[in-house]
Amino acid sequence: MRETADETEQRCSIARSLEVLGQKWSLLIVREAALRSRTRFAEFRAELGIAPDVLTDRLARLVDAGILERRKYREAGEREREEYVLTGAGGALLPVLAAINAWGDEYRPSSFGPAAIYTERETGAPVRLAFVDDDGRELDRDDVVVIPGPSFIGAA
Amino acid sequence: MRETADETEQRCSIARSLEVLGQKWSLLIVREAALRSRTRFAEFRAELGIAPDVLTDRLARLVDAGILERRKYREAGEREREEYVLTGAGGALLPVLAAINAWGDEYRPSSFGPAAIYTERETGAPVRLAFVDDDGRELDRDDVVVIPGPSFIGAA
DNA sequence: GCGCCTGAGTTGGAATTACCAAGCTAGCAG
DNA sequence: CTGCTAGCTTGGTAATTCCAACTCAGGCGC
Prior knowledge:
Two copies of one chain form a homodimer.
Chain A: H1 7-10, H2 13-21, H3 26-36, H4 41-48, H5 52-64, E1 68-74, E2 80-86, H6 88-91, H7 94-107, E3 116-120, E4 127-133, E5 138-139, E6 144-148
Antiparallel strand pairs in A: 1-2, 4-5
Chain B binds a DNA duplex through residues 2, 24-25, 40-42, 45, 50-56, 77-82.
């Protein structure tokens, strides 16, 4: 996404989020980190087939954005190397991945069936994303409306 | 996103979704359509400041993907023109927008406060996205784990 | 020490994509 | 039959991405 969005765009948190997440490869890197526990340069590269210069750039941006943290690791008899692990902010992207995943399962189905299933840790029971009210009661998607908040500027 | 993702990538519905949603501007166009009821070429162009050739391309792809529908409209004393309205599949992207919105509000805050608030249609009560189990009970995000589904290929 | 291996990157050049200003086209009003 | 407007094209430039090749640092076998 362009780096210097204008001011009204900056007021939208979707636009601000997409500055980092909307770049090519960014969300796929987060997917690898969050869903498949990848941490290393070579793993991301091999799984995604991404060019190394682009991967370097994206990892740096994700670290800058606080989504990944760069750490040292050392395997037995090896030298110190770098790895990239999800931060709290990175883990908080799980609903984003789940929402995209659910939409794709429904509206861009493949013949293969789902590649990822969201479950409850203890019971293994399936879990899905839904809109809920303050009391935790589930709502139908059609009953949700979006209204402009305090920082919204522009015509309705 | 590259058009010809390899086969293992094609098995992932996140990757398939991002083929259309991951391109620059696509999600912002959906945001304008879903949250602000924009329908016209000139509206998207004015709101987003997007180049017209890119907008032409993105609208065509979103129509192809079944997210927008191209329709004729005619205002009094005007000639017939085109507009782009959300389909059911397009409306089903609301959780994706909400998830990105919520993440941005929390992890990329601005000094302006939120620009969009998700509410219940009838009561106007605030609404949020959450993971729920089959009985509609809300779960903590940390209690959700993702396991490989039937189509998953690759090392854990 | 010397070369070799491996993971994590650079570097250089071609190809794709986006940006910007300008122009085009249908139909309707006057 | 001129102007106006929404919805696009076109042409040239700038920015991104792709790809292959190369570097760099440390540990290991010899």
